Structure to design on (130 residues):
């Protein structure tokens, strides 16, 4: 994540959360925390990426933050147990995928053109099914 993609006040919020040593109890809570801190301003910048591209691009920045601040390296990590994950990288990737889908669900507002295209696609599929 570069400074061009995220504003400095958001970076401060991320670091403050990390300093407080609060560890989420599960994936849903982790995604809620990240969504609340990053917000739709950041979300709208990444929802047009494929989720795998998002995970790969931010693996060494946001992913590292998740691994370190959410305690994924700890032996007693509740998130690691919840996911039955063997590696912190795997768990952070799942959290990032979930975050991307949350951004997509809550921050994406399709244009009128996209809505029309979607209606056409649904109509074509309905005709094919009948």
């Amino acid at each position: 994540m570069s400074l061009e993609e995220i504003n400095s006040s958001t970076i401060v919020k991320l670091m403050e959360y990390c300093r407080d040593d609060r560890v989420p109890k599960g994936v849903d809570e982790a995604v809620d925390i990240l969504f609340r801190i990053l917000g739709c301003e950041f979300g709208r910048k990444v929802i047009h990426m494929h989720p795998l591209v998002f995970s790969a691009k931010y693996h060494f920045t946001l992913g590292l933050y998740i691994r370190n601040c959410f305690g994924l390296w700890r032996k007693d990590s509740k998130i690691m147990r919840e996911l039955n994950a063997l590696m912190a990288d795997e768990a952070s990737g799942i959290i990032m995928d979930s975050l991307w889908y949350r951004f997509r669900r809550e921050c994406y507002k399709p244009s009128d053109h996209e809505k029309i295209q979607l209606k056409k696609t649904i109509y074509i599929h309905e005709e094919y099914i009948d």
User: Anything to note?
Assistant: Residues 8-129 form one domain. The chain has a mean pLDDT of 84. The radius of gyration is 17 Å.
